[in-house]
Amino acid sequence: MAETFRALVVDKPEGTETQTVAFREVDEDFLMDGDVDIEVIRSTVNYKDGLAITGKAPIIRRYPLIPGIDFAGRVIASRSEEFRPGDDVILTGWGVGEKHHGGYAERARVSSGWLVPMPEGLDYDLAMAIGTAGLTAMLCVLALEEQGVTPDAGEVLVTGATGGVGSVAVALLAHRGFHVVAVTGKTQEEAYLKRLGAADVIGREAFSGKVRPLASGRWAAAVDVVGSTTLAHVLSQMKYGGVVAACGLAQGMDLPTTVAPFILRGVRLIGVESVFTPKEKRIAAWRRLASDLDRALLEEMSTHISLDDVPEAAARIVAGKVKGRLVVDVA
Hints:
alpha/beta; Rossmann fold; 6-stranded parallel β-sheet
């Protein structure tokens, strides 16, 4: 009899429009194609995972599917020359948890090209305290650096600062010496954000209401994870030559702005995505994360949950009731 393992499976029975979410015992025949088999040790719950499990957005593109866009674990079998049994690896992105089985199971089978070796200085817990959210935050910081933004340029804004991407972005930018201003709808978390390195904290209501084509220029750079009206306000408030790294759409995909910030102030809007980021850039970003993030801060911004807790956590993260990062203890 084939060995079975536990998995969270999302399905949509034929002829229905409603997803089902349930834990199942499955075997290796349930897994998809790939040249590396992994024992999943840790995973995490991202906003996209929340959308996938709750069905609030069409994230899942085939059924049945094991969700979970991130995981860290140990190679148990490999048909690739790049990895051997016993290697510790990280996976984020590449459509895993969307169209390929993801991290909410005790086993995974994926392509070796999607895996990153565990960087020196990280372990399973820390890697998933970072996860896609942290990788995206690091890619935003790298984007600002590539555009020549330095700490002496002025204040740097981070929106959605208590979320996963925002929390890590605050910590990373503060570590590099930037004066970080954090924007949040949870102003009661001011102490938390200042421990991460924020110099100032302001409420998100400052970025609501009708958007002016140009407001008073204050920000040298910004990391935006919200989109929509918030991003439009941020763009209107950028200083001359300012740079915005945009990576999220929690508020919406629309952008109610004008060309004024771009043609009158030379503002640059840089799109950042982590799903299909080339492997070489991923490895470089993970090395920077291993060196630039303080272990104590990572632990403070992280909460551990069990695999059983994932469905409930998915609902909470979509409702905006999660602070920092959720690490899933799969093993």
